[in-house]
Design goal:
By secondary structure, the chain is of the alpha/beta class. The chain contains 8 helices and 9 strands. Bound molecules: pyridoxal-5'-phosphate (PLP).
Length: about 260
């Protein structure tokens, strides 16, 4: 039997090493890229270990799961001493990375720190309204369909600048950058083109729309393609499977991506 905590810690070290090597190869600082652990494959037992192996940024792709998991982790951590010297932990930051329906916004908003998947003005307006009721502001990224696939979520490349202009005016939203998912293919040139397009769009919006200094994030790259994404300027990589290699996961764990 592998000890899950040791195995997780080893996987985190391996993934972090790969991130650092990709940064070095691209001439970027190691601190330029943030690792976000996608938790959708895990049961609560493994989920609770994540903060202990240094994973402070956690993500989910479904609204209900995010709130359920964030509540469970907070409850678990709240039973520990506050003092870091005694094993106390700051509460993890939660990222919503999957498609978000407007009627689910109020479920996630009390728990989420960053929403990566904003792809319409109506969704942004709903987030803004719920945030106002909760008396908070919320960091969001705009999801762009940079691969141009028909079945993918995300705003079309040609409509993204216009959407950014509108989203940037909403008072309780901080537009912090863009997110994209590359097509599922082994052809790394298709993947690279998608990330290049997203980065170009990011620069265009940064220069042409009054988005402010907080517009600095590019969330791109998953287990299959995060090194390619880092080479193209990713500042956040959303990684699931590579972190859980060799661990026993619940049989009902979602196998694919884009679950909603
Ligand atoms: C599942 C998922 C990921 C992580 O994918 P892995 O291949 O497990 O690394 C990243 N982003 C989104 C939106 C996902 O749904």
């Amino acid at each position: 039997m592998v000890d899950p905590k040791r195995k997780l810690a080893e996987n985190v070290r391996n993934v972090t090493d790969r991130i650092h090597r990709a940064c070095a190869a691209a001439g970027r600082k190691e601190t330029a890229v943030q690792l976000i652990a996608v938790t959708k494959y895990l049961g609560l037992d493994l989920l609770r270990i994540l903060p202990d192996v240094g994973l402070g940024d956690l993500a989910e792709s479904r609204a209900q799961e995010l709130s359920r998991r964030a509540a469970a982790v907070n409850e678990f951590l709240s039973r520990r001493p506050r003092d870091p010297a005694q094993g106390g932990m700051p509460r993890p930051r939660w990222h919503m990375v999957g498609h978000l329906q407007r009627n689910k916004v109020k479920i996630v908003l009390p728990w989420v720190d960053v929403i990566h998947s904003v792809d319409s003005l109506r969704l942004a307006e709903e987030i803004d309204a719920v945030a106002a009721k909760l008396n908070r502001s919320i960091d969001i990224l705009m999801q762009v369909n940079a691969g141009g696939e028909a079945q993918k979520h995300g705003v079309a490349v040609g409509a993204a600048t216009h959407l950014a202009e509108h989203v940037a005016t909403l008072p309780n939203i901080r537009l912090c950058g863009l997110m994209t998912m590359a097509p599922l293919t082994d052809d790394q040139s298709v993947v690279r083109d998608c990330f290049v397009r997203c980065h170009e769009l990011f620069e265009e919006i940064r220069h042409e729309v009054g988005v402010g200094d907080q517009f600095k994030h590019l969330s791109m790259g998953m287990t299959a393609d995060f090194e390619t994404a880092i080479a193209q300027g990713a500042t956040m990589v959303r990684i699931g499977r590579a972190l859980y290699e060799g661990l026993t996961l619940p049989a009902d764990a979602p196998a694919g991506t884009e679950v909603s």
